[in-house]
Amino acid sequence: MGTSGKALTRPAAGVFLTLLACYLLTHGGTFYSSDGYVMYATAKALALQHTIVLAPNPDVAWQIVQGQHGLYFSKYGLGQPLLATIPILLAKALRESILSGVLDEALSIYAVSLLNQVVTAASGALVFLLAVRLGNGIRLAVGLALAWGLTTLAWPYSKTFFSEPLFTACLLLAALGLLAYRQEGNRWRYGWLALASLGLGYAVLTRVVGALLLPPFLAYAARAALPHPEGELLRRLIRRPASGVDWWRSALAAALAFGIPAAACLALLLWHNAARFGSPFDNGYTGERFDTPLLSGLAGLLVSPGKSIFLYAPLTALAVVAWPRFWRERRAEAVLYAAIAAVVLVQNAKWWSWWGGWVWGPRLLVPLLPFAILGLGPLLRTSARARTAAWALAGFGFGVALLGSLVDFNLYLIEIHAQYEAAGRGNADPDIYWRLSTSPIVVEAQRLWEGRDISVVTFHLQRIGFNTAQSTVFLVALALIAVAGVWLLAGTRDEPDIP
C-alpha cells in the first residue's frame, strides 16, 4: 500500500469534521417525515421498553400496521431504529444529569435527528478512503468526498431521519472493506472482509431491497479473493490451478469472516419479520408494488424538472461521461459501482412511488451518488476541461444542496397538494414534478428569497427547550468542530497513490 494508514487518518478526520460542521450549521431539529417519526417511535420502544410493539395511529395507518396477535408494528426495517437507540439512551442520560432543564421528548427527538448528520459525515470519510484506495491522490480524494457531501442530496438528507443515509453508509463500508481486502496481503485482510460483511448485512437489515445488491457485491468479493490463498478454490473452479497452496485454512477463515456478520444481520431480519407478521418473509409492505412502467419511472428520475438526479446532483452527469475512463483504469470497481447505480436506478424507477413521497429530490437514488462521484477520479486527474466542468457543476449542485438544507420542503408540498384538491385536480403527485413552474427547486428558491420555509434551528435552540447557556455551548462546540476540520484538511499533503 503506497499511502500509510497514519497519513490517511488526518484528512479522513478533517473530511468528517468539516462535513459535520456544515450539517450542524443547517440542522433542523426534526424528522421532516412520518417515516422518521415511525422509526423514532420504534427506536424509543426498543430503547426504553425493550419491545417493537407500537400504539396504533390512524394518522399513519399505512406505516404502523397490524401484525400477529392484533398488535401493531412499524413496517420499516430494523436497522435504523436499532442504531437510533444509542442517541435516545444518551439523551436520557443527559436529561437525568446536566440537561435537566430540557424537555424530555424534545431532547430525545433532537438527539435522534442528529444521527444522520453523524452517519453522513462518516460516509464522507469512507468516500475519501475509497477514493485514495482507487488510486487518487489525497487532495483529489478530499475534493471528491467534499463534493459528494456538499453538492449532492447527501447534505439535505443528513438533516432528515430517512433510512437512505444509513443504507448508503453501509454500502460504502462494504465497498471499502472488499477493496481493502483485495489490496491487503497480510492477516488484517480478514478484518476488512468482516467489515464488508457487516456493511452488507446491516444494509439489508436497514432496507430489505438491499438484497438486490448482493449479487454484484458477491461477484466482486469472489474477484477480490483471487490474489489470496483462499482464492485457490475459485481458481480450481475455473480450471486455473495454482500449485503448492495450502488454501483450505485461509478459505475457512475468509468464509467465517465474510459469513458470520452478514448471517447475524440476516437472522435478525428474519426474526424481526416473524415477530411482527408471523412469517420471516413478510415485511409488512402489503399492496406496494414495483408496477410503474420502467421508461416512465426512468424519465421521471432522469429528466423531469422536479426530480431529475442531474438537477439535484449535477456531478452525476459528468460521472456518466467519466465512466469509460474509470472502467479502463479500475475495471472491477467500475463494474461494481455501475451495477450498484443500475440496480438502484431500475429498482426505484419501477417502484409505484418512483418520486419517493414528500421529499426533496429523488430520495430513492441517494445510495448511488457516492459511487457515481468516485468514478470521476481518473477523468479529473487527466483532463483540465473536466476539472473546469466539475467546478461549474459542483457550484450549481452546492446551491441546490444548500437550498434543500435550508428549507422545510413539506410546507410547499402541503400547500400545492391543498391547491390541487381544492381545484378538483386529484393528487398532485407526480404531476407537479413534470412542470418547471411547480418544481421544488424553482418554487423553494423563490420562497427562500421571500424568507419563507426556513427550517434551521442551530441559532434558535431555545425553541426546543435549551436555555441560553446550553445553546451557547452547542454553538461553541460547532465552531470548534469547524475549525478542527479546516485545520486538519489544511495540513494534508499528497503521498504516493495506492496501486
Q: Main beta sheet: strand number and arrangement?
A: 2 strands, antiparallel
Stretches where pLDDT is under 50 for at least 5 consecutive residues are: none
Number of domains: 3
Order of helices and strands: HHEEHHHHHHHHHHHHHHHHHHHH
Alpha-carbon distance between the termini?
7 Å
Number of helices: 22
Give the integer mean of the pLDDT values: 91
The shape is globular
How would you characterize this protein structure?
- This protein has 499 residues and is mainly alpha-helical.
- The protein has 3 domains: 80 residues, no CATH class; 114 residues, no CATH class; 168 residues, no CATH class.
- Helix content is 64%, strand content 1%.
- It contains 22 helices and 2 strands.
- The chain has a two-stranded antiparallel ribbon with strand order 1-2.
- Helix 1 runs parallel beside helix 6, helix 8 runs antiparallel to helix 9 and helix 8 runs parallel beside helix 10.
- The longest helix has 30 residues.
- The radius of gyration is 23 Å and the shape is globular.
- The chain starts with a helix and ends in a 9-residue tail after the last helix.
- The model has no long low-confidence stretch (mean pLDDT 91).
